[in-house]
Amino acid sequence: MEDKKTDEQEKSSFWQRRKERLEEDKKAKSWLREWVDALVFAFFAAAILRALIFGSYKIPTPSMEQNLMVGDFLIVSNLTYGPRTPMGICVPFTQWCLPGVKLPSTRIPGFRDVERNDIIVFNVPHEIKPISQKTNYIKRAVAVAGDTLEIRNKVVYINGEEELNHEGLQKHYFLKMNDKVRLSEAKMRSVGAGALQNIPGGN
């Protein structure tokens, strides 16, 4: 009788331990799944925000030095001029898109149109690539649709009126060359550059 009772207790203890282990495994899986779900949600939420609300860009060229330097990172609002819906199936935060897949794209209306002297981000027009993979340029819009733009004697005129220079506008550059490169003063003048000067300590 006692042996039978002992066997029943051992079986009961075995199943109890098994049940506890299953519950522990379930809790561990539940904890891991919660983290995975949270990370996946955060990833796609950030991708949607980046596509429709704001974008991050890196300054690629020195054309706006004194205001924006090469390598600077910018956070740009997509809502001001209106976000553009995706044109393909792309991996978030990369420029890789599924080849051969092109979705109908449109621009959602923004808060306002581009105005003079806005600093804007746009895709390089001459590149033969999908828009989402084109190089981004960051420039100042000195004129808008309907304006007449002229450059006379290195001075910009908008609709016949001289455009005021912006703070930090850079007109003069130093060109550093090695001994193997030679530029004649005639060639420099032909492109509107000043005379060559020898800079102490320069090459």
How would you describe this protein?
By secondary structure, this protein is α+β, with helices and mostly antiparallel strands. It has a domain at 2-51. Helix content is 28%, strand content 16%. The chain has 2 helices and 7 strands; from the N terminus they run H-E-E-E-E-E-E-E-H. The chain has a 3-stranded antiparallel β-sheet with strand order 5-6-7, with no helix packed on it. The protein has a two-stranded antiparallel sheet with strand order 1-2. Strand 6 and strand 7 (161-162) form a beta hairpin. The chain is elongated and about 100 Å long. The model is unreliable at 1-5 (pLDDT under 50).
Major beta sheet, specifics?
A: 3 strands, antiparallel
Rg over CA atoms, rounded to whole Å, is 32 Å
Secondary-structure-based class equals: alpha+beta
State the order of secondary-structure elements, H for helix, E for strand: HEEEEEEEH
In which order are the strands of the major sheet placed?
5-6-7
What gross morphology would you assign? Answer: elongated
SS elements, strand count: 7
Proportion of residues in β-strands: 15-25%
- Mean pLDDT over the full residue set: 75
Helical content, roughly? 25-40%
Distance between the amino and carboxyl termini: 105 Å
DSSP summary: helix tally = 2
- Uncertain segments are 1-5
